[in-house]
């Protein structure tokens, strides 16, 4: 997508913290030819706005309260809006989510401590089809690289989730139809991958990396 010199660059923001959109609006107001067209606090509203008011660039927070809502927006943009570029703008996102964002076509990855002027300049470059030269965009491909030492398997996730709920190895084995020795082997693998030595630290690391949410522990 190349922006014509005479056309306003339109931007949409998807973030469940309204002050983020207000801060971007203030910065964008200083840039001629750039306009924050809309902001949404959840994925469903963002999809509605994309349908009614398509934008050149949509800025998406990956870590919103609603699980995977940021990825939902990226998926819709990838499938339906060829002329819209999506970028990630987030405080912190687990590597797993960043990889999914890259697969879904995100053109850049920016943390919320980025200088706002540099961020806006990068959005302009991305809108002009220069994502490869936009500052910070390289972080997306770097973070998106697979890390086999960190990625826990689905079965390991099941084991860790049950252990985190206070179940013993015997109880986990019974619930998952495994041998107790197999549960122990899974836990050893989890500890190694997450670089921890106990269940508490494994839970903390798994939550940080987005393998499951606090709600799943209830």
From TrEMBL:
Q: Where is the HTH luxR-type domain?
A: 145-210
**Entry keywords, A to Z:** DNA-binding, Phosphoprotein
Give residues where 4-aspartylphosphate occurs: 61
* CDD domains to which the protein is assigned, alphabetical: LuxR_C_like (cd06170), REC_NarL-like (cd17535)
Gene Ontology annotations of biological process type: phosphorelay signal transduction system; regulation of DNA-templated transcription
Looking up SUPFAM superfamilies in the UniProt record yields: C-terminal effector domain of the bipartite response regulators (SSF46894), CheY-like (SSF52172)
The UniProt entry, under Pfam families, shows:
GerE, Response_reg
Which named protein is this? Response regulator transcription factor
Q: The Response regulatory domain covers which part of the protein?
A: 10-127
Source lineage:
Bacteria, Pseudomonadati, Verrucomicrobiota, Opitutia, Puniceicoccales
Molecular function as annotated in GO = DNA binding
